[in-house]
Write a structure and sequence with these properties.
19 helices, Rossmann fold, 6-stranded mixed β-sheet, alpha/beta, 4-stranded antiparallel β-sheet, 10% strand, ABC transporter transmembrane region fold, disordered N terminus, elongated, 2 domains
């Protein structure tokens, strides 16, 4: 897919600020042209003093110089303040859009990109872009205006001096542009290496307990050293190429300054220029040093910003394979489930589910069992359209999941996974998923009571406003119950229950069981079973083996059939994963 150009991306996010940008540029032009008047006033002061002008005239020139200097500084401060505010507004909008876009991409894409890489794309790259944009107006555009003013006034004083100063400026600018083009890929590579470092570090920290328990700490440290070494080498290459712009600017300045001074001395000795004009030209030759240095210093930030904009454009150009349906409404109440010749494969890998045909009446509880890797979890995820089927169709409530909007489908189909994810936010935000599910405090208290968490809520210091610091705030059972409460709050017609047996303990098992009973009531439920006890509530059972349904029937009939796989597993006391 064609990558959008970075200037178009930046222009799109600056468009809402266009009036402010226009006003900012107008103030900037005045702010950066005022310093040009300073050397002219100094030259006039010197020539007036040499000509024996009265002290009052000299004081007037000095007062004007002071007013110009203070006014220029004040206006530049105003421009800097306004440009920083504008840059952060733009950056925050871009961060929001990148995060929203990334969240809309399918699970397969997220499986190929670690959280560390994603954080670097959304935060690190945009931070570089924001920092550059917050200073670019003053440092790049402003200094370009200043250099233009110096060039024009120099031409007025003496065309030869003006051309010399202009030539030095153009040579420096050409060198910096050339070096910028060469350095951008190096900074792009540096960001990519840094993203891999963050991704690897996030994975190692996530598995810290396993690393410690199995003595793999030295391996993790070795990996960190490898990534850090790659980052250092990439950063060194980028720095060497980027610093070349600063060196080039210094050389161009030194040559231009020396030649300008020599020309001024030559013209003064030939009585073609006053001492004040020589001083003005010399001061102008000094003035171009600061703009050139600022531009050179900003080149590195420009290179980082350009690389960040490139990757932001690349991320925004990534189109999700799962797109919203036309919006066919899904009926209220318990939902029927139909899988018609469903076949699914992850990309070019082997087929995970093959020719699955299934009809589930509304209000039915279906237990799904099978060996690890048989496709149980995949089947449940297809009902929420985390992936699209390769062949066939999945319908809930008689509606093809591809015909409904994703928001409507996720509203009517709920899921409780094996891993409970708690936000570092208030209890209220954890239940409503940051306001995605509308509910008042009375309703929140009701759903917590429904899962036997009313006593837990009463013990919290700030009630629903209490901030949860991740999963460590709750016990395993309480975390699972909170996940059930989320589903109760959304009130879906179909629930996929990927039972988290690893989080159950004897002290809370009864509470979990009661919560499950309430969750199943009046809903269609697909239970991906990890505990045989959960299947006691099932009306029907299907057994998957290598992605195919090898057994399907009522739980009662299969349990009593001595030849059924499910029946044999019950009699032998096996776990559902062993059924096959």
């Amino acid at each position: 897919m064609t990558e959008p150009a970075q200037p178009h991306l930046l222009a799109a996010y600056l468009r809402p600020e266009r009036l402010r940008v226009a006003a900012l540029v107008a103030v900037l032009v005045v702010a950066m042209l005022l310093p040009v008047a300073g050397p002219v006033l100094i030259g006039r002061f010197v020539d007036s003093a040499a000509a024996g002008q009265p002290v009052s005239s000299l004081l007037a020139i000095a007062g004007t110089f002071l007013a110009v200097a203070v006014g220029a500084d004040a206006l530049q401060l105003l421009v800097a303040w306004r440009s920083v505010r504008m840059a952060w507004r733009m950056g925050n909008r871009l961060r929001t859009d990148l995060a929203r876009h990334a969240l809309g991409l399918e699970l397969a894409w997220h499986g190929e990109h670690s959280p560390g890489v994603l954080i670097e794309r959304i935060d690190g790259d945009i931070d570089a872009l924001t920092k550059f944009a917050s200073t670019a107006v003053l440092q790049l555009l402003g200094n370009a205006v200043l250099l233009s003013g110096v060039f024009v006034v120099s031409l007025v004083i003496d065309w030869r001096a003006g051309l010399l100063i202009g030539a030095a400026t153009l040579v420096a600018a050409a060198l910096m542009v050339r070096l910028r083009t060469a350095a951008v890929p190096a900074h792009d590579d540096e960001r990519e290496v840094l993203g891999r470092l963050y991704g690897d570090l996030e994975e190692r920290l996530g598995g810290l307990e396993d690393l410690r328990a199995n003595g793999a700490g030295r391996y993790a440290l070795h990996r960190l050293h490898e990534h850090s070494a790659r980052w250092w080498r990439a950063a060194r290459r980028a720095s060497l190429k980027g610093d070349g712009a600063y060196v080039a600017a210094g050389i161009a300045f030194s040559a231009g300054s020396a030649l300008t001074l020599a020309l001024g001395v030559y013209l003064f000795r030939g009585d073609q220029m006053s001492i004040g004009s020589v001083l003005v030209l010399f001061r102008f030759s000094q003035m171009i040093r600061q703009p050139l240095e600022h531009i050179a210093e900003q080149m590195r930030e420009l290179q980082k910003a350009a690389a960040g904009a490139r990757r932001a454009s690349r991320l925004l150009a990534t189109r999700p394979s799962i797109v919203d349906g036309p919006g066919t409404p899904i009926p209220e109440g318990p939902l029927t489930v139909d899988l018609d010749s469903v076949t699914f494969a992850y990309g070019d890998r082997r087929t995970v589910l093959a020719e699955i045909d299934l009809h589930l009446a509304a209000g039915t509880v279906l237990g799904v069992v099978g060996r690890t890797g048989s496709g149980k979890t995949t089947l449940g995820r297809l009902l929420l359209r985390f992936w699209d089927v390769t062949e066939g169709a999945v319908r809930v409530g008689g509606v093809d999941v591809r015909a409904a909007t994703i928001a409507e489908l996720r509203r009517r189909v709920g899921i409780v996974t094996q891993e409970v994810e708690l936000l570092r936010a208030s209890v209220r935000d954890n239940l409503t998923m940051l306001g995605a599910i509308p509910a008042d405090d009375r309703r929140l208290a009701e759903v917590l009571a429904a899962v036997d968490l009313d006593g837990w809520l009463a013990g919290l210091p700030d009630g629903l406003d209490t901030v949860l610091e991740g999963t460590d705030t709750l016990s395993a059972g309480e975390g699972q119950l909170l996940a059930f409460a989320r589903v109760f709050l959304a009130d879906p017609g179909l629930v996929v229950l990927d039972e988290a047996s690893s989080r159950l303990d004897p002290a809370t098992e009864a509470r979990i069981t009661a919560a499950v009973d309430r969750l199943l009531a009046g809903r269609t439920v697909v239970v991906i079973a990890h505990r045989l006890a959960t299947l006691d509530r099932a009306d029907e059972i299907i057994v998957l083996d290598h992605g195919r349904v090898v057994e399907h029937g009522s739980r009662h009939d299969l349990a009593g059939d001595p030849d059924s796989r499910y029946g044999r597993a019950l009699r032998l006391g096996r776990r559902p994963e062993a059924v096959g």
